[in-house]
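Lecture notes, structural biology module. Today: joint structure prediction for complexes of two components.
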Amino acid sequence: MEIITFKKVSKLLGKKQILDDFDLSIQSGEIMVIIGRSGEGKSVTLKHIMGLMKPDSGEVWVDNECITQLNDDDINRVREKFGMLFQYAALFDSMNVRENVGFALDEHTNLSEEEKSKIVAEKLELVHLSGIETMMPSELSGGMKKRVGLARAIARNPQILLYDEPTTGLDPINCDVINNLILELSKKLGVTSIVVTHDMQSVFKIADRVAMLHKGKIIQVGPKSDFRDPENPIVRQFVRGEAEGPLTDEIIQNVLK
Amino acid sequence: MPSRMISHFGDQVITSFEKAGDITKLFLDTLKWCFKSKPNIKQTLQQMVYFGFDSIPIVLLTAMCIGMIFVLQTGYQLTKFGATIYAGGISAIAFAREIGPVFTGWAVASRVGASIAAEIGTMQVTEQIDALKTLATDPVRYLVVPRLLAGVIMVPILTILAVLVGILGGWIIAISNLGITTQVYFSNIQSFLLPKEIYAGLIKTPVFGATIAIIGCYQGFNTFGGAEGVGRATRNSVVTSTILIIFFDYIMGAFILAIWK
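The predicted structure, tokenised, for the full assembly:
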């Protein structure tokens, strides 16, 4: 069953056409990884799903609701189905870990302090960070911040988890810890996961399906096995991380223009 | 060249109107949230402490110094006409109607307005504002409403304190430099400073508080470009608030004088 659908979405930012008649469907329960070069619109894609950006044209459907046509109150209702991990965690730096993870519980529920603390402890345990409730974000390492961000994202048991470059800025071991968490949470919580990344090691470890974004369109989508030895020369260059090929030729031509 | 200058000037005018529209929209959105949902008491109290209590030293220091200087200068001029005893009364009226409210507004704009812009601007560039939205929390309700309420409540209180301390500062100069006795100084103030003079000054201060809060938040929300952007937002917040405070002071002062002579 499709849970998120992009229908002919276009978005212009400044003078750059970030999304151009962009179509993509994401199935319930899968881990969909969107890859592409920096600045190609991967994060913009996530922001459209959350209703943080509105498309210039086209529609974004989330769980049978067209999020592009909803008012602010309804968008907030739909957002309760989501959890999002930001590239640099985006923890509230004036709050400790307990307040960060329990933010949505404090804001949107009438649970007692005891119940909220219990949920926060459970979520921190899920990301293997028990007992750090009183620490401030400034006291945490990059990897810990991401895991606290993940605990905050799952605090209200969302149906859909969005990850914006979850392994960026982490050492290889922490990258693997985050990848394992994405897989674990997907299995334990049964959520749909959408991951934006250009880390191919992550892609082959966590993805059920992969979509490659290039010049505002999805140029290839399919199971990760299709991306091991792709025929499309653009996809092949990206997946192999080669300095020479059609992707870099385009950049050189643009500079020469 | 002239056509380019005219075009540049035209662009600046259009941008200014667009910004004024955005600021008004932010203010109206904030008002809507004030009535639509219960304000966050904890956040509002925190902001009241920050806006008000923590601003007391700078506001009182400024008020004390200005009160002393004002009475000294006024007394010196009045001595030429043998009217030195009126220094207290004249200064008190000026302080209650104009100097107290405006200088308090400026002191709070430079201390609190700047830090609101820096705090929200940092949240903006580090995606914390987006994080609030993804947690189904409206940033205007969560961040702006408590600051607006704190500004509207605390700037009038700070102004009352500033006027009192300004008058006390003037008294020190009156008895030490001008040879006015304590009794003459205060009885002169009592006969000059009618309640309507105090109301005429105080009525403007919630507007100044709202201006500082809304401009600080607006500049914060519109921050882009990392640390440089935060610096720009902070500077713009202070400059815009300072200009708007004097602009609203003139508009309201003229209006009050017209209807309440």
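Point to remember: The CA atoms of residues 152 and 206 of chain B lie 4 Å apart.
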